[in-house]
Amino acid sequence: MLTKDQKDFFDENGYLMVEDAVTPEQLARLREITAAFIDASRAVSESNDVYDLDAGHGPGNPRLTRIKIPHKQDPYFWEVLRNSAMTQVLNDLLGPDTTILTSKLNTKAPGGGRAVEWHQDWAFYPHTNDDLLAFGLMLEDVDHDNGPLMVIPGTHKGPILSHDANGVFAGAIDPDDPLFERDKAVTLTGKAGSMTVHHARILHGSAPNVSDRPRFILFYELACADAWPILGSNSYFHALGQRKFWDDLQDRTVTGAPCLTPRLEQVPVRMPLPPAPDTGSIFKTQESAGAKSAFSKG
What we know:
By secondary structure, the protein is an alpha+beta fold. It has one domain: q2cbj1_9rhob like domain (Jelly Rolls, Sandwich). It is 24% helix and 22% strand. It is built from 8 helices and 14 strands. The strands form 3 sheets. Strands 1, 2, 3, 4, 6, 11, 13 and 14 form an 8-stranded antiparallel beta sheet that branches. A hairpin with a 2-residue loop joins strand 8 and strand 9. The longest helix has 17 residues. The model has no long low-confidence stretch (mean pLDDT 95).
């Protein structure tokens, strides 16, 4: 699927754009399911295990920041990950044995859908090695106005910046950090069916959606099977206990088989502790911790 040039680009820059990551039929089905979830959210008045609501949400105007763990909400989100061009990209970059950490369908509402402050995914869930990445499948066209993903090339090879604010893990860097070189940011736009790939250590974020169109991006966070999670992050599987963890690991295996010999590498680690007051989502973490915004006016 991927050429040597594409693989080399990802290794050097920490991100990649892949066109036609799903078929037109798969894309249409994903859109249909997403529309049904959004319609069902009209009856929801508070964020829950399925929905993270945005300001102004109501029966007549459904506004979400996210549909949580969609691959556990509808099996088609799991099926398309395992049987599409995405699967080939996954194996090209991480090898034959892979697992999923989590998924999310970020649904930035039009007219101000919430920003995601600059951060490194690795800060949320450090592992024994850093063969981790995220896919961002665009379910609709994404342009400069509706809050596209932005990345800073090469930062996946650098340090893990502080994601703390007010004495807790805030899930966002301080925009005044001297190591944050915002002028080097690259904006990733594309047509529906295109997919971004970004390394777990790369600095990235996205501005509010100022357009009159929603921005639907389906994210999968994935790992090589020999990258094992370090206890202390906010992943649900840390609370399962040994037996349930093992059973869950089978369910999280995307391709190949689980690995029982973790690969230990010299990787930078800062534990995401103490936790923010609300860790229900990255939006709640950043907001409840009082993270300083890189996107606020003035």
